[in-house]
Amino acid sequence: MTQPTIKHGDWAKIQETRAKKKQASAKNRANNVTIILALIAGFAVIAMLWSKLLDKTNESRIPVLKQEQKLRIARHFSKQFIMGNWHFYDAEFTSSDINILIKMPTKLAMSEQQVAQYIKGSICPSSNSRIWRDVNHYNLHINLFVGKPRNGTYTQCDNPNTHYTG
């Protein structure tokens, strides 16, 4: 038996069609990857925009502190640390937080939890203090630190304005 032979021209056409099919499948894969990456990027952008929108709506619920309120809050805490070695360092105001920074000469000989309880019991204003009128619904944080503020102990005071009755 003899097998039929292919002419060179026919063989070349077969090779060309095989090469074109390989290129087409490679392009399809590249297109699929591009589409998937575009979808992921689109979802990420939508998620970021959605979170920004939610942040804006949360910010609008808390009234912006006036300059007089900020000064009264800073004075309230600076008066507490006129005498002694502890010093009122700064009051930082953000869109939802008030951070009071207090510098100490040496670290307290207490655990983090004990320092937090000390701050809540001794430094945070009492629930009937007039300062809460200015603080309003902001989160009030006290930071005791030695050296740099970022190495301190932050504690959030219990804000009587945020407790729900009912």
How would you describe the overall organization of this protein?
The chain is an alpha+beta fold. The protein folds into 2 domains: 8-61; 67-162, GMP Synthetase, Chain A, domain 3 (2-Layer Sandwich), CATH 3.30.300. 51% of the residues lie in helices and 15% in strands. It is built from 4 helices and 4 strands. Strands 1-2-3-4 form a 4-stranded mixed sheet, with helices on one face. It is elongated, with a radius of gyration of 33 Å. The N and C termini lie far apart (99 Å). The mean pLDDT is 84.
Tally of discrete structural domains:
2
What distance lies between the first and last C-alpha atoms, to the nearest angstrom? 99 Å
The strands making up the biggest β-sheet line up spatially as: 1-2-3-4
Beta strand %: 15-25%
How would you state the average pLDDT, rounded?
84
Low-confidence stretches: none
CATH topology of the largest domain: GMP Synthetase, Chain A, domain 3
Number of helices: 4
Q: Could you give the count of β-strands?
A: 4
Using the CA coordinates, give the radius of gyration.
33 Å
Distinctive features:
about 170 residues, alpha+beta, 2 domains, 4-stranded mixed β-sheet, 4 helices, 4 strands, about 15% strand, transmembrane, transmembrane helix, membrane
In short:
By secondary structure, this protein is α+β, with helices and mostly antiparallel strands. 51% of the residues lie in helices and 15% in strands. The model has no long low-confidence stretch (mean pLDDT 84).
